[in-house]
Fold each of these.
Amino acid sequence: MGIAARIASLQLGAGRHPLAKPPPPAPRARADPRELIAAVDDDQKTGVPCPTPEELAARGPDYIRLISRPVPSPHAAPPPPPRRLPPKPARLPTPPPEPEPVYYDEEPAASTESCLKCHDFSYVDAHAAQFPRHTVHSLDALAHDLTAPFDSETEKCRALFTWMHHNIAYDCDAFFSGNLRAASAESTLHSGLAVCDGYAGLFVYLAERVGIQAIKVGGHGKGFGYAALAPGSPVPPFQGNHAWNCVLMDGDWRLIDSCWGAGALEGATYTPRFTPSWFTSTPAEFGRRHFPEDPGYQLIAPEDGGPMSWEQYILEPQGPVVFKDFYELNFHPYLIQPAEQYVQGGSWVSFQIFKVCEHMSREEQDNYVYFVNLPDGTRTPLRVGEEGAWGANIYIPSGGGDLSLYYVTSCGGQDAKGFGIADFERANGRKAMSFGGMLRWTVV
């Protein structure tokens, strides 16, 4: 179509809008519904024949709609009654008042479940004992088998720690000969022997296999052959002689020593002896006998004194001799009074010992009688005080000698656990009693 033709067509349609709607049809007159209903009813009553199509068309659609409705059956059920709504209340009910917030002046007491020292690891330790080294063919499989039953990283690490005690022995020959060689995790598993570096390296390998972060830390340890420096001695230079681990367990970095936890040297002989305190020690406790080459691995919090210097660590005075029963009875090795090995004779001295955790029972029926034995044989029992410590103030006569702390293991041939102080005082010197050693000082 040319331009002129298009213009002409536009002019022809100029009288209407191209998108305008057509006008609506004229409304039809609606019949009165009452008249239609009456007509239909008359037809049905009189039996008038049905109207023809032409008659229906003439009466309109409203008539057709009405005559099409069904005739109700005389046997039909009546329609349901209309639903009645409950009356609308005059006003909405007042909601009950919200409870007042409760404020606590003090924080609730800590749960024993969160205390690492009180935690019952017996089921973990029993599981770890089920995998003797000679049956292990893969370190990866060992790591999985040891840790699979446990959800927490702490329990997984405890299983690794305990397995070391059962399966890796200290290599005395290498240590005393000085023939120390670097060991891999595989070689340690194969030989079943290691020094501290081998223990720490194997722990790192197993922990990493199950997604636990572990670091081998080198430094100085106050272990076999250590003797405290005499007062006034110069500070020696730092020298590393030990290795342990720093491990991330359930969000907290902790220090563990699986070598010292597995056993100890007694003379030239290695004695397997499970010492779980090297798994549960706090950083401050751990730091009394471990000094890392990198001070950042001390992990000692400011409220516990913060990191110590090499001089503070190495010049710490020698404490009393601590026997294994002291640890097995769950007493704290760093809360002993007197804290130093030498006790001044001719003076009153305060003696105190504490459990490793405040949650542990101090009831008489759960403990033994603990007493200080003086050089002259005098026995003075310790009593539980308000602070939770067993203690006594005792006059120490001059003259030197050994001063020891014992506990009563039996009396009259019976187990003395639960034996009271009154029972001890009645039996002392009159009945046969046996004792276990806990601590020893030297009187000067």
Amino acid sequence: MASWRCKTLDIVLTLMCNYLISSLGAVVKLEEAVKVLKGMGRAGCISDLESYTGFIAAMCTLRRTVDAVELMKQMAES
């Protein structure tokens, strides 16, 4: 039962971080979104496709496409 509870908490934390990243991206707070993305690992969360999608979408909206492509390359390598 404890294992199930830990996995559920990890999922909830990941979802909350993903929402925070996309929300920060929507209000053009990319530096804060980077902090959340980098801090996910320290908090025991696993950054997933949704984590990066919100961030990359914000970069593209701000016309930082070179940075977005670089981030996608890093994702592919890891």
Amino acid sequence: MAASASHWHSYLRVIVSRERQRLEHFQQAEDILLTLLEDVHAREPRFLVDYARNLEAFEFALCTSEDIVTLEVPLRIDGDALRVLACWPGDTPAGHCLGLGTCHLEVPSSGTDLEDWTSTVGVMERGGGAGCLVPGKVLQHLKELLVSAIVHCQRCFMLQPGDLSAENLREDAMELSLLIRGGWKTIRFDIIPVVRRQQDPLQLKGRQSDRGFPEGSLWKATEEAHFVPASPHCWRSSTHLPILKLLQAVDTLNGTRLDSLRLLNQIRSQDWGEEGGKGGLTFNHLKMVLLWSTELFPSPEDWQDLEDSVYRLLVILLRCLATRHLPHFLHPEENLFQGEPSDLTSLYHKVERFAWDPRRFLRFHFGLPARTDSWQADPGTRALLQLPTEDRSYWDTAYFDILLSQFQVYRIQDGARHSAVSQLLSKIRQEIPQQS
């Protein structure tokens, strides 16, 4: 059953109405955290206090379904002087899986005031220099300083009872978690040390740079590399802040792109979760879908109407769920669904059900999610969605325009796009005879 424009906008208004209060809660909790970090910096100047937290505040207000903030603490290190060395499989103990982009950060010479954070284990065999920066040592030092800062602030009555809990600090975690009260809400801050260094602008192989984005936004988002702990011995390249910078750039465009993200994230948390509330689709997954949809639908005509905008994200999400493959926007070789423990088939059915009958889901409820047990997937749509991922023509605007037509939300007047759709349909009919 189709939903009227009023249904879409009424649902969105409730979501947006929460953002101002969430931002106030974030700022109150941030004040407490900055007090702690200032104390840490006073004890150890190598841990810097970054007061520019507009990106974290932006994400926290945007994602009304979660109360977790990833907060990077920059190190006072000349990142450009470090040498990046690829990690070997034997470089990390059992239980810590090496992912894409894991590396060592080699300190070029002694006398850099980093001796207590470095180790020469495995470096000399590779012809290395003074040693490598060890994330486990940095994390342990930061943890000890945070505990000291908490005790000091409590003794000086700078913290009120109930303002903060450090119970989540764990020896083996790659982030240091603090629960901090902001107003009546408790926010979890995952604190992560970060090494920053300049890098060449990211080249998107076979893709048009800045397509759909404000000019220069990709360069600005990726001009700096961020390295965070991947294991006690290895670092990894983090795209957390670059992705947020791209989202913020999208927010400067006219249209309803971020409104689509807000709406689908609320549906995700309300109706697409797994039993127990764990696993399944995440806000990070949806952020990646929005960035892909911005690139694949660069025309402002695609983003004038809220319903049409939501479906731009939905067709890409359905394609990724059907093929179990969600490429990272900045590193497409990385599949964000790889090793995903959740039931993607069940999730696919929930998302497709929403696509065919959104009105049933555009309501707020505090009980069980909307039931989709009896839903039978549309075989024609499923066949289109399962076309081979190796063929790049099935990850292009024309292909997703065909999917939009399938859901009867394709109202584009561009003749060139209509022509591209016709050509691709001829090819698809040869691969799926029943579609003709």
